[in-house]
Amino acid sequence: xxxxxxxxxxxxxxxxxxxxxxxxxxxxxxxxxxxxxxxxxxxxxxxxxxxxxxxxxxxxxxxxxxxxxxxxxxxxxxxxxxxxxxxxxxxxxxxxxxxxxxxxxxxxxxxxxxxxxxxxxxxxxxxxxxxxxxxxxxxxxxxxxxxxxxxxxxxxxxxxxxxxxxxxxxxxxxxxxxxxxxxxxxxxxxxxxxxxxxxxxxxxxxxxxxxxxxxxxxxxxxxxxxxxxxxxxxxxxxxxxxxxxxxxxxxxxxxxxxxxxxxxxxxxxxxxxxxxxxxxxxxxxxxxxxxxxxxxxxxxxxxxxxxxxxxxxxxxxxxxxxxxxxxxxxxxxxxxxxxxxxxxxxxxxxxxxxxxxxxx
Length: 360
What we know:
Layout: H1 3-9, H2 12-18, E1 23-28, E2 31-36, E3 49-52, E4 58-60, E5 66-67, H3 69-76, H4 83-97, E6 121-122, H5 132-136, H6 141-146, E7 150-152, E8 156-160, E9 166-170, E10 174-180, E11 186-193, E12 203-204, E13 227-231, H7 234-245, E14 254-257, H8 273-282, E15 287-290, H9 296-311, E16 315-318, H10 332-340, E17 343-344, H11 347-355
Parallel strand pairs: 13-14, 13-15, 15-16
Antiparallel strand pairs: 1-2, 2-3, 3-4, 4-5, 6-7, 7-10, 8-9, 10-11, 11-12, 16-17
Helix pairs in contact: 7-10, 9-11
């Protein structure tokens, strides 16, 4: 957590109530103000301290001491100029207030010997370098690391066919997106072209490895949460994570991808996506928000998936993205707005949305 986030997220009225410091609310030229009775700098107690409720910026009209959230707290608690103590105290207040950090640490993963990724660099690199392609899409080094992204400049996936002969696929100039099962074992991967010249094979999947349709991308990171949001593809859920990280109340939501507008089910051994959700339910997941793209086909498929998930006892919400857009194609605030406005799935909602699709 940095100072900018403390200034943004800490609620000064919560601090004043926490410390039983008398204050009033009033309206000023720049919005609502907190009018504090006693100045912590000069001890004047005639309500001459005015602080902006959102930013915490203000001053005492007696001694002219300027304040922001951190300096006001430092004065009020006699912390002096010890910034280590000031920041630690602010973190403590934020935690009490309900703040939670973004999820940056991923679950432990392992790579079995039978899945040898094409020659590639881990992102970000050891000297914190990231691909310009990813940065231009808003995916910084932290997000790249969270999803275990790699870059293959010139590398091949070599495999053995069922008849014993060998083959290979060129994964050069692609972002490698590893896929792990719920226990964190690498099971397959996909390669995303970054040149824009391979439209017929924008995404390349390795032959002779299991298809992605039985897994949930990022499912291994569904830990210590009751809420999951499901997008279609890798870059959709990266955009969703970025959007959720920017809102403290959404940082517990873990994004997973279904690899398309479907939810696989019916495998005899339960090794499918519905089976994954059954396992996640056993781990504490209670709510799934479906955030597939804004189209009638995706909506109908989402309703089909919702019916399956409700059938295993999960609460399901349907988020309606703007027409023709997915989470990767809209600003973060739009992603959050769609999540907040998602409708709880019911049979009547199913019928209503199918008969009167907002995308028709």
